[in-house]
Amino acid sequence: IDAVIPLEHRNLWKKYAIGEFQTKEEFQGEFVRHVETTLARSLYNCDELAAYQAASQAIRDRLIVAWNKTQQKHTLRDPKRIYYLSLEFLMGRAMDNAMLNLNVKQLTGDGVSGFGFRLEDLIEKEPDAALGNGGLGRLAACFIDSLSTLNYPGWGYGLRYQYGIFKQKIIDGYQVEQPDYWLTFDNAWEIPRTEIAIDVMFYGYTRKFTDDEGKVHRIWEGGDLVQAVPYDFPVPGYGTENVNNLRLWSSKPNREFDFAKFNEGAYDQSVAEQQQAETISAVLYPNDNFYLGKELRLKQQYFWVAASLSDIVRRFKKSRRPWIEFSDQIAIQLNDTHPTLAVVELQRILVDREGLDWDEAWEIVTSTFGYTNHTVLPEALEKWQVDLIGNLLPRHLEIIYDINLYFLQDVEKRFPGDHDLLSRVSIIEESNPRQVRMAYLAIIGSHKVNGVAELHSELIKTTIFKDFVKIYNEDKFTNVTNGITPRRWLHQANPKLSKLIAEKLGGYDFLNNLGLLKGLEKYANDKTFHKEWLEIKRANKARLAALIKSQSGVEVDTNALFDIQVKRIHEYKRQQMNIFSVIYRYLQLKAASPEERKKFQKRVSIFGGKSAPGYYMAKTIIKLINAVGAVVNNDAEIGDLLKVVFIEDYNVSKAEIITPASDISHHISTAGTEASGTSNMKFVLNGGLIIGTVDGANIEITREIGENNIFLFGHLAEDVEDLRHSHRFGHTELNPDLQKVFDVIESGLFGDANIYSNLLNSIGNHGSDYYLVSDDFASFLNAQQQVDKAYADQDAWAQKSITAVANMGFFSSDRAINEYAENIWQIEPVPLDN
Ligand code: HBZ
């Protein structure tokens, strides 16, 4: 109450409230003020970095004004809110996005050019906020963009890692990891809120006590405290004043100091121990789709979950509503199982701290949470050792046991005598050591569970979560197909195409309503439009060619077909199959006569992506790609007919250059392994076509754009099990064309063959070929041929490309967020004007 400015003083306040710059000149005034005061520099030492920082400060000021208005409005109206809990937010750069959303890019550009700077150069000065591994983290970033754009009251909660995903160097063809310390310079896009620090406890013990009414309680005490300090990142929407919040927690030593140690004279030791607290949020774990049971990772999860829930509960308590209204006011989405401890933590808060009955609390908990699954790969499912949880979070382990007990009692009642079922669905896996199955806990603690594309949502119901479909009502399980934000992935990444589309459709409304792209279909056969369309593709390819040249020195011909596969390197994503097909193509070119050679379609085969640092096979694949590039690119006989490029350090800002430049991109996972994929959507939205398997969202993309506009191949998900079985027991010959490729690798053409022997042996030589590289190879090569043939007719190609783009409306993350809002969160947009 003390913090509120009394009524009689508010007019004075309003008189001085920040004005938002509206013109180039006003921007320039703000720019100079920030250089001279915020940065304490002058016109004698304002370099590009300083200019970027001053421009971002000026834009940030505008964002903060809108952010404040939005938060005040939400506090006043107190609508139901969604909190999106994600251990990763792969945001990329903020400035360009903020300028486009606030519609000030033009005037900012004019403004800085008045001082001799080019806006493009300033944009390049910003480091990526690379707080994620890949698809899961980028999905969270697209989702919060849509939440703001659609005026939903929604916050993201995550961790403010000091080190994002590592920077990838390629040295001698191998991946080398370097730390990504992204906070070297002041970050204008975050607002520290040191005044809201929250204490989080670890370790300690639980104690039983009986209250005056004879009721037995258990409490957790005696642990170590770590402070969670929030940093707020404003999230602007497009075409709206609405600015939501992304709150990221940073760990700091607790204010209380160990005075006992201090007095013993162990001052340095006690400071050093305090310092340990900061390691909790220091680094993002660089594994995607792979579970690693490290204690520090569990600490990260609990630290973030406890701080976020404490914040959410505090906000709820301010409204003075009864607990029973908690889930009418709050929805919490679990992005994968990483935040599953939130289920336990909320139950603990309600029972231990707020004194609710178990059942009443559990009803609140389960109606609050929703859980999104992103994978069926067994090696990715989180299972924490019981002892690890018991030691770090003793009270939580007790609560997990109780949740399990009541759950199993229910199951036993409904399926009496089915002991196999009980052990199959138990949260505790009775293995040695015993483990907590986090996905089961997430299912039991949520009211909805969703997969991220239709096939994937079917697969979780019929495979990994089959028993739970039997136990619960079928409609606890649902699908929300992923989406991408057209603001960043079309308007920002591909301004030329966005402008051309706007000219045809009479404005930029499609950026808020992607279904309007349908209006392009009537130009699909228009030859003059084809020319404009292809010209933009050419310009985007030139932009990528310049990046490739500057990074690797390789010159590529923009007349060639640009063939791209950029994503995390993983055996299931089958970059190995792609590079094998490139080698096959090289062999064919070498075997052809000079006359025959001329008939080949020129191609540039472009790869990019990071391997988890400890993933040996993935690292071998990177080495092979680079080794093939070294041979092919230096073969004078081949020249421009084939180039092979590995783009170092693939990240969000590089994706913005790469995606618009694609003619064809690869989405070729073994059927049933890629939950959805989202880059497939980005490529098609930018007029690139897809070569892909019948997997993840490729299936729905095909349905939307038509099967003539995509190159599908390979076995279906339903065949995979039988094929794997036949590998184990039958005798399967390697595909003969693949055998030729293996022979040449083994001949040492790409360096010491031993480097690749484990990779090759996992496929041929009685290896299990778990990802069906050999089984799919023939149909993959065939699909490649179809691509070459189709590309030869540029008008026909343009027609496919335009038709595809015209039908991509479904894949906007706005559609996905509206589905979550309606079917899972039950939230409404908050209208703009009061
Ligand atoms: O999530 C991806 C899926 O592989 C992809 O198919 C889907 O489109 C995308 C969005 O739903 N999954 C990931 O990116 N997963 C991770 O990055 C990951 C990170 C840490 C983990 C586990 C998975 O512990």
Give your account of this protein's structure.
The protein is 47% helix and 15% strand. It has three domains: 19-76 and 94-124, no CATH class; 78-93 and 128-481, Rossmann fold; 559-798, Rossmann fold (3-Layer(aba) Sandwich). It contains 34 helices and 25 strands. With 834 residues, the chain is of the alpha/beta class. Helix 12 packs across helix 15 and helix 14 packs across helix 15 (394-414). It is globular and about 95 Å long. Ligand HBZ binds at residues 133-136, 139, 287-289, 291, 374-375, 380, 452, 482, 674-678, 696.
Question: Summarize this, please?
Answer:
The chain is α/β, with parallel strands linked by helices and 834 residues long.
Radius of gyration: 28 Å
Count the E strands: 25
Level-1 CATH class name of the largest domain: Alpha Beta
The helix/strand class is alpha/beta
Ligand roster: ligand HBZ
Q: Low-confidence parts, pLDDT < 50 over ≥5 residues? A: none
What proportion strand? Answer: 15-25%
What distance lies between the first and last C-alpha atoms, to the nearest angstrom?
24 Å
Q: Into how many domains do the coordinates divide?
A: 3
How does the overall form come out from the CA principal axes? Answer: globular
CATH architecture of the largest domain: 3-Layer(aba) Sandwich
Helices, by number, come to 34
Topology summary:
Blueprint: H1 10-16, H2 24-38, H3 48-77, E1 81-85, E2 89-92, H4 95-102, H5 105-113, H6 119-124, E3 129-131, H7 135-149, E4 154-159, E5 167-171, E6 174-178, E7 191-192, E8 198-202, E9 205-210, E10 216-221, E11 224-236, E12 243-253, H8 259-263, H9 267-275, H10 295-318, H11 326-329, E13 330-335, H12 341-353, H13 358-368, E14 369-372, E15 383-385, H14 386-392, H15 394-414, H16 419-425, E16 428-429, E17 435-437, H17 438-444, E18 448-451, H18 454-462, H19 466-471, E19 477-479, H20 486-492, H21 495-505, H22 527-552, E20 561-566, H23 575-591, H24 594-597, E21 603-608, H25 616-632, E22 642-647, H26 652-658, E23 664-667, H27 679-685, E24 689-693, H28 698-705, E25 711-713, H29 717-729, H30 736-746, H31 757-761, H32 773-792, H33 794-806, H34 813-825
Parallel strand pairs: 1-4, 1-13, 4-12, 13-14, 14-18, 18-19, 20-21, 20-23, 21-22, 23-24, 24-25
Antiparallel strand pairs: 2-3, 5-6, 7-11, 8-11, 9-10, 11-12, 15-17, 16-17
Bound molecules: ligand HBZ.
Ligand HBZ is lined by residues 133-136, 139, 287-289, 291, 374-375, 380, 452, 482, 674-678, 696.
